[in-house]
Specification:
Distance between the termini: 37 Å
Radius of gyration: 20 Å
Number of helices: 8
Order of helices and strands: HHHHHHHH
Strand content: under 5%
Largest sheet: none
Number of strands: 0
Length: about 190
């Protein structure tokens, strides 16, 4: 029974925190520039990877022949794409989380400060992007080989949103850990 009580308290606390964060985003619209910048960067990255593939397809290169000859190369390219895109998404999510955390503490927070703090967390962000990319490539390989079972396994990982979950959980965990200490860099 105590486990359920603890669990329900955590759910209630999470809902309270998310409501407060949502309120902060409603009050300070400039913080919405971070998800917009993230989306713009992700679109540019996707285009930078998609344009060469489209050009190869337009010039008549057969995709099936190319994949059979360079199967491992396609997985390396996929891994690099995943690392970069996950890294960008996590970076901007962490910057947003940092700004919201400061606002929750009653301090002023600017986008530039959030970006600086997120940049100071770059090794952790890169590490998590590499973990996420590794899992993404493994799941894609399972999906390619297993059909519907692979799709179901991949859906279980992608649906909850692994990257955003990291930045919020990591920041809140560090916040709780250092609750008695003054606010410092969340990734130090």
């Amino acid at each position: 029974m105590q486990i359920q009580t603890g669990w329900t308290q955590r759910v209630a606390q999470t809902q309270t925190i998310m409501s407060a964060a949502r309120q902060i985003l409603r009050e300070d619209k400039t913080l919405l520039l971070l998800p917009i910048a993230s989306s713009a960067c992700l679109m540019l990255l996707t285009a930078s990877f998609a344009v060469p593939a489209i050009l190869r397809a337009l010039t008549g290169a057969a995709a099936s022949d190319e994949l059979s000859q360079t199967g491992s190369l396609s997985y390396v390219a996929m891994f690099l794409f995943y690392v970069v895109t996950y890294g960008v998404a996590i970076f901007f999510n962490a910057a947003l989380a940092i700004c919201v955390l400061r606002k929750l503490e009653g301090k002023q927070a600017t986008i530039l400060e959030g970006l600086r703090e997120a940049l100071s967390c770059f090794p952790q962000i890169l590490g998590w992007a590499m973990v996420s990319a590794t899992i993404g490539v493994v799941l894609k390989a399972i999906e390619r080989r297993s059909g519907i079972v692979g799709n179901m396994v991949r859906l279980c990982w992608v649906w909850p949103g692994a990257s955003p979950r990291f930045s919020w959980c990591q920041c809140w965990w560090r916040r709780e850990k250092a609750r008695s200490k003054p606010f410092k860099r969340p990734c130090s």
